[in-house]
Amino acid sequence: MRPVPCSSDMDFGQSNLFGYIEDLQELTIIERPVRRSLKTPEEIERLTVDEELNDIERALYLLSSGQDVQGTSVVANLPVLMRQNPAETLRRVLPKIREVLHVAGVEMQLTAAVSFLTVLQDESVSIHTYSHSFLHIILQNLEHRDAGVSNAWLETLLAVIEALPKETIRHEILNPLVSKAQISQTLQSRLVSCKIMGKLANKFEAHIVKREILPLVKSLCQDVEYEVRTCMCRQLEHIAQGIGTELTKTTVLPELVELARDEGSSVRLAAFETLVNLLDMFDSDDRRQTVLPLVKSFCEKSFKADESILVSLSFHLGKLCNGLYGVFTPEQHLRFLEFYKKLCTLGLQQENGHNDNQLQLQTLEQEKKYISVRKNCAYNFPAMIVFVDPKNFHLELYSIFFCLCHDPEVPVRYTMAISFYEVAKLLNSGVYTIQKELVTLLQDESLEVLDALVGHLPEILELMINGGENSGSESKLLSIPDLIPALTTAEQRAAASLKWRTHEKLLQKYACLPQIISSDQIYYRFLHRMLTIILTNNVLPVQKAAARTLCVYLRYNRKQEQRHEVIQKLIEQLGQGKSYWNRLRFLDTCEFIMELFSKSFFCKYFFLPVLELTHDPVANVRIKLCYLLPKVKSTLKIPTDKHLLQQLELCIRKLLCQEKDKDVLTIVKRTVLELDRMDISLDAFQKRFYENDLLDQEKERQEHLLLEMEQLEKEKQQNEGRSANVNDKMFEKKRKFICMHIVCKEDKKSKLVRSQSFSTQALHPKYSNIDKCSNKSSATGYTSSLSGMGKGCMLSFSDDSFRTRSTGNSGNATFSTSSSLIASRNSFNSADQKNNGNKESQSRKMSM
């Protein structure tokens, strides 16, 4: 197409005008196929069906007079017709389908095969009726000239055989099979017979199989066509399972030995794979005298004359080595190990068994084959560790493990990443030997490799930290110096890519890090990164994954100052953020807070900031808040949180009175009804909330244990100069005890008495006045307040800010951990604070 001239030089002469018309005509060519694809009125008339016809009449009309696409739709709808009106469908529709299938095309044939199988699975009719009506149609279409159609009907028949009674199978399938399997029949007929015999072997007793099926099996194993011999060879596994061990040794094994020496490579390959699958059925003598020589022959020929078997041999080598482990001599054991090592580097260097000229002129097909071989070796690596014994891993297999993890091809490294967890489990205490390879795979350039490794990353890291001899000591964290940089690099690479699912998965798995590395390392290297992702990432699942992981980090953070700083940032940057999208993510984060933390923690820090969003200018934020309000209300305890309940009711009244958006108002009314039906738990245990109360008190208890751990660390730092060894031992004992309660009881729903809970003042200065009023009305004992808090400052809190709630119930027991917490802080608390605590507890008892 010629370019359009500028307006200053435009010439409206006849020649130029005709040139533009030609250009327009060229453009109209694009639309012509679209016009031709539309239906003409005559075609629409032929496709129109009378609406007054019922389903059966319409089906018959379309099968008789309709077009092929309409007939195919009727066949696809056959299971529905069978459910609605089975008698009429069998009497009128099915004979018509049988008649149409004789001249039907491939699409209708494939649809019919699927529909017949669906009717069987739906059990719309009895198996006797099905075999009488449908089985003959299936058998008639088995030898269709199209191989795809024939295979579809064969799959349907094999599924039907499972449900048919033995007598029906004998008369309708087995007896005709004798003639179908003869050499005079077509190739397709003999191939179908092979697969049917493999299925029938498990339906009859061993003596019937021996008398009626085995002669046909031997005949087909010696067929003149290699396709038939290959197909029959692959069915020998099913036949062996049907006739038992003794007949397998005397009948099947000789046939396999003969087929393993066949002139056709595909037959030899089928014989080898069948031999490996039947290894468990042979005794040690058969393995030593028959199987082992065959396997050695396959291994020797695979590098020289028969490379076609190389890929299959590498895939089954792990199973083969472990299956023959008991019959190997030390020399044979070493030979097979060396053979495996040779396969692991195939294609990467010149092998002795190859011609140098051939290696230099490797075709693309050969390269693909060698990549598949190394990939199969990576797949079999855990089995080879069992073969050599994990104790010998470093000496025998570490160099190969290193090569596979650094293989130039992504599929090989991907397979190693998938099997890395299995390798780590097998090595157990020797897992430290593969730490460098873990870091290497975390830094791999391919995100597919990273995605495969991340699936079991928490379990792998746990084994890395606890798998060595000094299990449980913090010095273990220093044994993987490059782990934290590798984890941060992996996350940044996933974030920079377009594969957001990998990024989401990675962030979800990073929630395990509090059990792996220290709280300070998480705070400085990961926690702020999670907050940045929430604020800047554009993918909602990634933001939610980051929010939940951030909440987990906050849950296990051991320093009050760091916790309060993070909470402050969540409230300011998310809850009070300028973007409504950030405020929506704040509500998502609050959901995770309610899931992971105790009710008292949420009420202390997030209850009032959540209620502030009832005045949000964006309707979507208010809608999301309304959906969240029932969960928010479930965090309250009466009478302790009575003032918060009043605040909640006040906000709902304002929404009902002042809301102008119709959608929001509708959801508010629905939420009000749901809130009215809700019951609020009391400070004392109630039967209907018993399980939830137990979980909540366990969360509170773990929060207190974290405070104790922080106090112990402070004590250790203060006493660092005096009797360091004794102090280290005492601190380690206390730390282990507390960690055991925090980590080991995370997933246990243990039935304990309610402990005391966090009682700190809400962080943001904005809510200090509200809290002061609420303290006066409910006497909850929130005595400390925060003022002058900035975004970046590190806060210091007196220990009285974590004064626990008193339930006021004389029947409730108190935890020894709570008393020990108070005792450990006596050096920091003044007498006035103790008196205040006593007054608070008395006032709560009076209110009860």
TrEMBL record:
<dbReference type="InterPro" id="IPR039918">
    <property type="entry name" value="PPP4R4"/>
</dbReference>
<dbReference type="InterPro" id="IPR011989">
    <property type="entry name" value="ARM-like"/>
</dbReference>
<dbReference type="InterPro" id="IPR016024">
    <property type="entry name" value="ARM-type_fold"/>
</dbReference>
<keyword id="KW-0677">Repeat</keyword>
<feature type="region of interest" description="Disordered">
    <location>
        <begin position="826"/>
        <end position="848"/>
    </location>
</feature>
<feature type="repeat" description="HEAT">
    <location>
        <begin position="252"/>
        <end position="290"/>
    </location>
</feature>
<feature type="repeat" description="HEAT">
    <location>
        <begin position="213"/>
        <end position="251"/>
    </location>
</feature>
<keyword id="KW-0175">Coiled coil</keyword>
<dbReference type="GO" id="GO:0019888">
    <property type="term" value="F:protein phosphatase regulator activity"/>
</dbReference>
<keyword id="KW-0963">Cytoplasm</keyword>
<dbReference type="InterPro" id="IPR021133">
    <property type="entry name" value="HEAT_type_2"/>
</dbReference>
<keyword id="KW-0597">Phosphoprotein</keyword>
<dbReference type="GO" id="GO:0005829">
    <property type="term" value="C:cytosol"/>
</dbReference>
<comment type="subunit">
    <text>Serine/threonine-protein phosphatase 4 (PP4) occurs in different assemblies of the catalytic and one or more regulatory subunits. Component of the PP4 complex PPP4C-PPP4R4.</text>
</comment>
<comment type="function">
    <text>Putative regulatory subunit of serine/threonine-protein phosphatase 4.</text>
</comment>
<feature type="coiled-coil region">
    <location>
        <begin position="692"/>
        <end position="729"/>
    </location>
</feature>
<dbReference type="GO" id="GO:0008287">
    <property type="term" value="C:protein serine/threonine phosphatase complex"/>
</dbReference>
<protein>
    <recommendedName>
        <fullName>Serine/threonine-protein phosphatase 4 regulatory subunit 4</fullName>
    </recommendedName>
</protein>
